[in-house]
Amino acid sequence: MINLFNTRIENLALHRVGNKNKGELLLTSSTTTGLDDEMHALLKEYFLKPFRSKEETYYSFVHEQDLEFHEMYAFAKAIFNTPNSLLEYSKKIAKHLYDQSVHPHIRSGELYVCYFDNILVDNNKVDGIGIFKSELKQDFLQFEEAPDNLNMLLQQGVNLSKLDKGAIILNTAEDEGFKILSVDSNRYDAKYWLESFLGVDVFEDENFFTKKYLKFCQDFAKEVVLPAEDKKEEVLFMNRAVNHFAKNDSFEETAFLNDTLENPELIPEFKNYKVEKGPKYSIEDVSSFPISNTAVTAARKGIKNVINLDTHVQIKMDFTNPENAEKFIEKGWDEERQMYYYLVYFNREEKK
Hints:
Elements: E1 2-3, E2 8-17, E3 26-28, H1 37-52, E4 59-61, H2 71-81, H3 86-100, E5 109-121, E6 124-134, E7 137-146, E8 149-158, E9 165-170, E10 179-184, H4 190-198, E11 200-202, H5 206-228, H6 231-246, E12 250-252, H7 253-260, H8 266-281, E13 288-290, H9 293-302, E14 306-308, E15 314-316, H10 323-328, E16 329-334, E17 339-344
Antiparallel strand pairs: 1-5, 2-3, 2-5, 4-11, 5-6, 6-9, 7-8, 9-10, 12-13, 14-15, 16-17
């Protein structure tokens, strides 16, 4: 889990990167950019706001031969080893981005390379390198006072409420290619930013596997448990799955299946589903891993424990312990009405 509340921008270099294929230029600054308190606050919000509201997916630098041949990895290592070298290596980063900016869709824009301190990652304080690009310009009005008139001036500038592209390289897991966060609001050129420029792939840690495995379980519940059983069992399976993750520090698949699938006939169905769909979630060969509590908490919030009936009635099963549903909810068939029913037991109605 990342906390950016007390993060500060310690140094900032500003450059402009054009589209190389269109003959646009690369402009690099000869000095770093000083920030007063007001500008620091504005830029910090501009740079970091997208990362606070975005679900965390970590990436890392990857190279088919060796990380030492990865340009961006080498630049990041050099900056972390000598933070005062930020300007020197930011120019190399700008040149690397310029060399990748050859597709007609890629827009020119300002490149900001900054050094952060006081980033909390899983309660550990680390430094970071921020790389951000502003591409889209918006019209805005400026007003000029004349002795007897007020004139309007139409200008263009960067909207500080929306960052176009950004990445934060965290000074952790260096041997594995660092942990990196990325945002990109312009999806038409996503490969250019993540693959061509950054050269990253998803960082496969406990957060990644926990999140992917629970998403796999959610789809298994919807596509296999629901047709084989009913909506109640689909909801209960996901509750048991999340609770199993929540009460264990590590995941072991056999124990998980015995704990969550009450119908033993569904166990081979689960294994077959994993063979078929596992590659989609990058878990086809995964049967054990450490569990991320952060990912479990996020998954619990995304699970809908609601049974929607065709009679426009909803039953919400808000159980910490899924066994409670077995005690307090019964499903049956009414011969006279030729309809299913749910029988719900309770002591009193809660007044909220």
